[in-house]
Amino acid sequence: MAIDMRKETGQSGTVEQRIVYESGNEMAAYAAHQINYHIMGYFPISPSTEVAQFLDLMKANGQHDIVLIPADGEHGSAGVCYGASTGGGRVFNATSANGYLYMLEQMPVQSGTRFPMVMNLVCRSVSGPLDIHGDHSDLYFALNTGWPIIMCRDPQSVYDMNIIALKLAEDPEVRLPVLVAQDGYFTSHQKRRVMTFAKREDVQKFVGEKPPEGFKHVFDRNNPITVGPYMNEPDYINNCYQQSLAMYRAESVYDRIRQEYAELTGRDYPILELYRMDDAEVAVFLLNSSSEIIKDVVDQLRAQGIKAGSISPNIIRPFPAQAIAEALKNVKALTVGDRADAYGGHGGNMSLEIRAALQQYGNHTTMVISRIYGLGGKDFYAEDGIRMFDFAIDAVAKGFVEKPYDYHGITAGDPSKAPKRVLEPMKYEDVKTGLITVTPDEETGKVNVRIPPLRALTKKAKRIAPGHGACPGCGIFSGLELFFKGIEGDIVALFHTGCAMVVTTGYPYSAHKATYIHNLFQNGAATMSGVVEMFHERKRRGELYQYGLQDDFTFVMITGDGGMDIGMGPAIGAALRNHRMIILEYDNEGYMNTGAQLSYSTPMGHRTSTSNVGKHQGGKVFHHKDTAQIMAATNIPYVFTGSEASPQDLVRKAAKAQWYAQNVGMVYGKILITCPLNWLSEDKDGSTIIDQAVNTCFFPLYEVERGVTTITYNPEEKGKRVPVGDWLKMMGKTKHLSKPEYAETLREFEHEIERRWNMLKAKHDNPYL
């Protein structure tokens, strides 16, 4: 029996709809797949990562035709999207936090050249220090980029606004890229009942089945155009003026589109969401998810006889200044809650803009209180909402605002609970055994290394303390500790963002016994370059003698989880400058810290959360990056690969790496490590899987010393080479490759392994290759 959804849901729209129960991220992806965009350029970052994951899963099952392009970082993904938009098609993206800041330079490029697209900003704290939970510190960086910004308070509005956003972006009066903002984790991961268009064709009828005609793009050979030319004054200021006019037109265009959408669906998103504001004397202004909670507080206060109301905008660029001023004309005091601070501005961004709006429209009586709240994902409860109203009620009672700007929800410090050192600094003799000798060979120009039996190094102090939060069976720390067995003396370590960083540091605790620095994926190598050069300069000036220094530090940058994708440019820059440091990459074949998305080191055919397996897709569709060979091409003095399955080989290479890093220049090393959680393998099989990866010649063990390649373990000569298929059967992520329908992918992967192995053997045989 057919059910009338309009009766069931109370909706009054005219279009057929259906109910789903999904999260904000799922609804962003759902809307995108119904629109069937041409291109999505993306890079994973929590909490927006799921949007691409859901779209990839739908793609594997043949539910849409969107071309999903995994970029090398957010800056690259923004470039992919911009380039695609110049081609006149429909473009989509999603990002968060520092990822958005990394692409920030591209945002005015796209709006300034007037190419539409839709991007979801799943709002999250901007580090440092690192925090992956929701606030609006990334959103506020978007305010001056020239993109209209529409807001989403729940998964229903995420779905609806994603559809409205495209129509707004492509409107002839606007023609600007549009940002759709939802709260990370509060909205992005919480499942709610959502009404959707039942038929894709109804969505496409609303937005237009194809992009509107009559606008320039780069594929019209009869009308070639120049995109983004150099401009002098007065053209540049005129261009900005035209863009400004389009931005302000976006308010009325949005108002028209949302009314059209309301007729179809019964769901309306007015420019301002006003709740019980008709006679309100005190009010609270909040964005997104918190604005729903505050409505319950309004009802509680109304029951007590307090004339309370709340305001929340559905669009903040252009800022609805006149509408806000009109809504506040009878309000005596307003508390504005900002989920980010405009440091040094005496208020959060929304409070500053509301004050300006009131001034502009002649309201000199409404008192405005600014409170910064909810940073780093701190929850907002009804009790917090009551405090927000208390600030306004107090101002009305006193006739003035006692504290116009402050933080709400901070915790008073307690000196007795100050962090205390748990791990004492390692003694010099604990890390300097004298058992490893490294001597340069003047005749060959290479370095000779002698290491003792590994049991002699077991008493050497571990650089990372037990008790960190790594998953059972994680190969990162066994691999790192084995490498560190070959390093004598003190180190300074820098860890990129990634699993190794996240599980070893959680304020106020740290598992690192040696000095440790963190910086983001894209800038670790540059950061460590600065550390290295500062050390040598301060040592030269005689400024470090009082700090107990006995030998030079060894500077080690640990990267993984795709850090040599987004961080590749700075790593190559550091290599070309030849700083005396080691870059050590742990390769787990994916971005495991954000949920096992594909990285450029993920092999062909391997399943990840953004290279799913289905009837239309069989895992990753392109080959893995050979980072070691890329770094060798920079002509740094020493490059190596290693594996904990060959411990003596790895310790010997570590000792050699230290000598080169202290005496000659930069070193790059790559170790393959297992990740049972996302490889879908048994914890106990990690070392065996890594050993088999070496014996298939997929991950050969070799070194490139002063440009000369030497294979340090040849499974063919040892009679231990195994078929690639035997290795792939050991992991759940690759078991599908044994099926007949994926035979061609397996053959291509095997061929590539053989090609690279034969090239490596040729380099081993000929020092000039």
From TrEMBL:
<keyword id="KW-0408">Iron</keyword>
<dbReference type="Pfam" id="PF01855">
    <property type="entry name" value="POR_N"/>
</dbReference>
<dbReference type="InterPro" id="IPR009014">
    <property type="entry name" value="Transketo_C/PFOR_II"/>
</dbReference>
<dbReference type="InterPro" id="IPR002880">
    <property type="entry name" value="Pyrv_Fd/Flavodoxin_OxRdtase_N"/>
</dbReference>
<keyword id="KW-0813">Transport</keyword>
<dbReference type="InterPro" id="IPR029061">
    <property type="entry name" value="THDP-binding"/>
</dbReference>
<feature type="domain" description="Pyruvate:ferredoxin oxidoreductase core">
    <location>
        <begin position="280"/>
        <end position="384"/>
    </location>
</feature>
<dbReference type="InterPro" id="IPR011766">
    <property type="entry name" value="TPP_enzyme_TPP-bd"/>
</dbReference>
<feature type="domain" description="Thiamine pyrophosphate enzyme TPP-binding">
    <location>
        <begin position="551"/>
        <end position="657"/>
    </location>
</feature>
<dbReference type="Pfam" id="PF17147">
    <property type="entry name" value="PFOR_II"/>
</dbReference>
<keyword id="KW-0249">Electron transport</keyword>
<feature type="domain" description="Pyruvate flavodoxin/ferredoxin oxidoreductase pyrimidine binding">
    <location>
        <begin position="31"/>
        <end position="257"/>
    </location>
</feature>
<keyword id="KW-0560">Oxidoreductase</keyword>
<keyword id="KW-0411">Iron-sulfur</keyword>
<dbReference type="InterPro" id="IPR033412">
    <property type="entry name" value="PFOR_II"/>
</dbReference>
<keyword id="KW-0004">4Fe-4S</keyword>
<protein>
    <submittedName>
        <fullName>Thiamine pyrophosphate-dependent enzyme</fullName>
    </submittedName>
</protein>
<dbReference type="Pfam" id="PF02775">
    <property type="entry name" value="TPP_enzyme_C"/>
</dbReference>
<comment type="similarity">
    <text>Belongs to the pyruvate:ferredoxin/flavodoxin oxidoreductase family.</text>
</comment>
<dbReference type="InterPro" id="IPR050722">
    <property type="entry name" value="Pyruvate:ferred/Flavod_OxRd"/>
</dbReference>
<keyword id="KW-0479">Metal-binding</keyword>
